[in-house]
Structure formats: C-alpha cells, structure tokens
Amino acid sequence: MTRKRKTSARSNKRRPNSTNGWLGLLLIIMAVCLGYEPVSNALKSKGIHLPFPATEKEQAPTVEPAGALEMPAPLKDRPEKLLKRRTYTVSYNRDWKVPNWVAWELNRDRLMERESRTDKFLPDPDLPENEAVTTDDYKRSGWDRGHMYPAADNRWHWQAMQESFYMTNICPQNHNLNRGDWKELEDDCREWAEKEGRIYIACGPIFYKGKHRTIGREHKVAVPDAFFKVILCADSHPPRAIGFIYKNASGNHPLDHYVNSVDQVERITGIDFFPALPDEVEKKVEASYDLELWR
Fold first, then answer.
1. Catalytic choice (147, 157, 219, 257)
2. CATH of domain 81-294
3. For every residue of 28-52, which 3-state class applies, written as one string?
C-alpha cells in the first residue's frame, strides 16, 4: 500500500502577505524620486509616515519666530489701523494722515523686474472716501510724495506695484532726500536682499514733540520731521539688524552718517521692532550694529 505523505502543520499555515510591505517600500522610493509632499500625503492615507526631509531641515530658518518677523508690536500711544496688502502691511495714523510704519519682507523672488513703474497715486480703497488722502493734497505743497515701501521693490507683480502707490504708503518728503540719500538706502536694501536671500524691513515717519506743519486743503497731512528704517537679516550667522534715521531735509551724506542701532530707533520712535524674534535674539541684534557687515 502506498503511504500517504503526511502534511506538515507548517505547510498548512498561510504565508504572511508581504504586499503591504513592498507597497510601502515602493512608495518611499517614489517619494525620494518624485518629491516629498504629494507622496507623503498618499502614504499617510495608508498609515505610513515618512521622516521629515533632510533638505527642509537644512533650509530651516536660523531663528524660530513667533509671527511675521517684519511686523512691529501694536501701538498704544497713537491711532493705528492695520492695512494688509499683497506684500506689505501699513499701520495707518488717521490723525496724521500718514503711516505710523510700513513693514515688508524683501527677498530674491521680489527683485525680478516684470512690471514698469506706474506713477499712478491712488486713494486707499480701504478708507472711507472722506478720509482717504489723494494726490491732490500734495499739489503745490513743495513736498514729494515719498514712498515708504518703494515702488522699485514691486516690479515683480502688477498688483504689488499698484498697491505701492496707495496714499497710505506715502509721506510728504523733501525732494532732495527722496531722490538722493533715501533712494540710495532703498538701493542698498535690494542689494542686501539679493546677497542674503531675504531681509525684513520696517520704515516710516518720525514726529518730534511740538506742533507739526500740514499740507492739503481737504485732508490735513502732517509733514514728518524725519524718517526711520530698520532692517533685520534673520538668516545670517549670527542674525543681525541695523537702523537708520534721516532728517526730512536736503543733504548729501554717506550711509554711516545716518546709521543707528535698532534700540536707538526704538527710543526715538516709541515703536517696538521685531518682537517676533526670541527675546534673547532680539535683545542682542537690536543693541548694536556693525555697518561693515552690510557692505
């Protein structure tokens, strides 16, 4: 009699299905080859999680901000209406009819020149018509319509260019200053953004104590005594910042004539700059400056 082969208990057990393992390995390879984020989402739907990509770790900022780095702290000693634009923010003063400050990030992507300058100054559409300053308020005043956020920073996009000509971004400015030393600082900022990759800027008017001259028949626009600009490079090692103060008057001086620490600008303006920085970083970068690091 032919003996029946005894079936092994091991052979009767089902082999583990390795399909899920092979699928996971395949998707991981696809993630590396085709890009992290889209495949990562697909993996998560199957309960598979990839580690944080090394390239993103390497590109992480030097500091961990608590908010937008260019934004000053809220003001409590003067009227303030925040107006958000595509690429900048305005703190508008209804009493003075000029900004308290204007803040923005300037990076290499925004240095591309796709659009031409419009030179079309517009009343701000976010203000009531009876409050919105117009270009007529500057006519025959003897003062330039001085940009705080420069038009030349906005040639990369038509909307950004248009919004830079809103009158809430404009101050009465000495003609020689507007076309001279102030413009040279704007040019320097673009060079620094190109070199560093990105910088954070806030600038605006300064009003010293006392009565202020005004222009405009329909709207009384206050004429600033001076202007400030503060600049932060958060991605440098270590991070650094610098400040500048310009009298609203004619002059032709080198950059070091206007330079200050950010702390000095804060004392003069009463504005707290770069509060989103970690406290220890903010304290260090605002206490001193080295103009040679920006040359």
1. 147
2. 3.40.570.10
3. HHHHHHHCHHHHHHHHHHCCCCCCC
